[in-house]
Write a structure and sequence with these properties.
The chain folds into two domains: 21-82, Helix Hairpins (Orthogonal Bundle), CATH 1.10.287.990; 94-208, minor pseudopilin epsh fold (3-Layer(bab) Sandwich). Helix content is 48%, strand content 11%. The protein has eight helices and three strands. The chain has helices at 21-43, 53-58, 65-80, 94-104, 107-120, 170-173, 177-184, 190-208; strands spanning 125-132, 135-142, 157-163. Strand 1 (125-132) and strand 2 form a beta hairpin. Helix 4 (94-104) crosses helix 5 (107-120). It is globular and about 50 Å long. Bound molecules: manganese (II) ion. Manganese (II) ion binds next to helix 1.
């Protein structure tokens, strides 16, 4: 069974003016589609075809580089689309807001550190907010790697991510990655980030028992 490009829960123009429609359309229908197609081609006829995407990602060191790059691209983009949304942004609430304050001192400090990680990621990659050992941690990854992969320097469960590949912003922001990062805060789907955070905390609590 081949992996399929997931449908977006919103229209390509729904994130305007923060992320423009043309960028969204090319990013999803061309870039993400290409990762999906190339991922399927890379696993065709191998045992990986019988595995879930989670099983492949968590054991990525056992697969060829084409699976790491394209499977990572398939997974990372599928995740990215869910943590951005129209009529979003603003501030997190509830348990997540408390956890952010506890880990970083304040939301503003978290915003500063996450934005800095996204800006500092050299060339192409992603900046992440993950749950690691029950705590929120910021890190970034090169290429299409992610913190769930067994090869990751810092491992954890992702709850938020920003794509800082040039294809994610270049049409609208050109070389101004910091402007794209600033706009990203206006489209963060905090409801989904909160849900992921609570899920992960409930899971680690259960495992600890
Ligand atoms: Mn991308």
């Amino acid at each position: 069974m081949a992996f399929e490009l997931p449908k977006l829960a919103y229209a390509y123009n729904a994130l305007e003016p923060n992320i423009d429609a043309r960028t969204m359309e090319i990013h999803h229908s061309k870039h993400h589609q290409a990762y999906t197609t190339n991922f399927n081609n890379a696993i065709a006829g191998t045992d990986a075809e019988k595995l879930s995407i989670d099983e492949i990602i968590k054991n990525i060191s056992k697969f060829p580089m084409a699976v790491r790059n394209n499977g990572g691209g398939y997974f990372n983009h599928s995740f990215f689309w869910t943590i951005i949304a129209p009529n979003a942004g603003g501030l997190p609430t509830g348990e997540l807001a408390l956890a952010i304050d506890s880990a970083f001192g304040s939301f503003d400090e978290f915003k500063k550190q996450f934005s800095a990680a996204a800006a500092a990621r050299f060339a192409s990659g992603w900046a992440w907010l993950i749950v690691k050992d029950g705590k929120l941690v910021i890190n970034s990854s090169p290429n299409q790697d992610n913190p769930l992969m067994d090869i990751a320097e810092v491992k954890g469960q992702p709850v938020l991510v920003i794509d800082v590949w040039e294809h994610a912003y270049y049409l609208n922001y050109q070389n101004r990655r910091p402007d794209y990062i600033a706009a990203f805060w206006n489209v963060i789907n905090w409801n989904e980030v909160s849900r992921l955070y609570k899920n992960e905390m409930a899971k680690s609590l259960k495992e600890a028992k």
